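From the shared-data thread, chain only:
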Amino acid sequence: MAEINIKNVAKQFGKTHALHSIDMTIKHQEFVVLLGASGCGKTTLLRIIAGLETATSGEVWIGDKRVDGLAPKDRGIAMVFQNYAVFPHLTVYENIAFGLRMAKLSESEVERRVQRTASLMHIEQLLKRYSGQLSGGQRQRVAVSRALAMEPDVILMDEPLSNLDALLRMEMRAELKSVLAESNTTTIYVTHDQVEAMSMADRIAIMDQGQIVQADSPVEIYRNPAAHFVGSFIGNPPMNFLSANNAGNGQWLVGNTTIAGPQSDKPILEFAIRPEDIRVGEGSMTVEVRLLEPLGSHTLLACRLGDTPFRVIVDSDRAVKVGETLAIDPIAERIRWFDPDTQLAL
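Structure, as tokens:
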């Protein structure tokens, strides 16, 4: 069983705290994505699991074995980097076979594993080519095949698709998820691209300033963000946030209307709603349209609610004009409330 247990892992670079006491369990064969902006600590955590970085404190376990004191080669992991690291002087076959031969496997076993992983990644027809004869997407497939050929317990991937164009990234996302499911490995995948995270992960760990803010399924993170940061980071466009003043008896003054909300003694809470979770043409809340952004199937309206920017998504068939005042009604069950002091969801 390749369950990964990260226990109280912290990392300091001088006086800078890159990671703050990370605790997380990644189940056997689970696909977990570490998602966050540059500098949040996700690659540092990945490198500590790989053995390329040493934690200041804490433990890393794979299965029933503590591995943070072991060399990378003894941890039962494989890693795919952002740059492909494909040897230019070797053929595709020799690239995939390189680690297997270093492990002194028999040639028959090398042949079996190379053919199997090349078939999984649909590059079996490229085995005699050199890397200079391959496209970027093909080189990325070679790098993934080389990792999978080692039949590791754990595979770590550090932004492996970031150098590919948009269409190829979309194709590779679908292929990678299905291939890794077939390979029976536990996967940790680092990215700053929320589309990659939402489309590929069994579970997403949102990181900010060296901490895991929320770890849950993509749908749960999107629908029920645990903190203001998650709601502002996940979604394109992100959630709308407005200050809500306590009107008593669970009623809150939001913009120019009163909305039912949580019972609280706090004078102010933060009201949040996603742009697509708003009914247009009804309700007592009003916004002024400042800009239209046609996006194919829908149109994004950049509006103002009083002095606050506010985004609304409508069907592309709906006729809306700049300067128009719209009545809107946030869908009650989609509203989220946050404590402005802790920034956490209520």
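The first strand starts at residue 4 and ends at 13.
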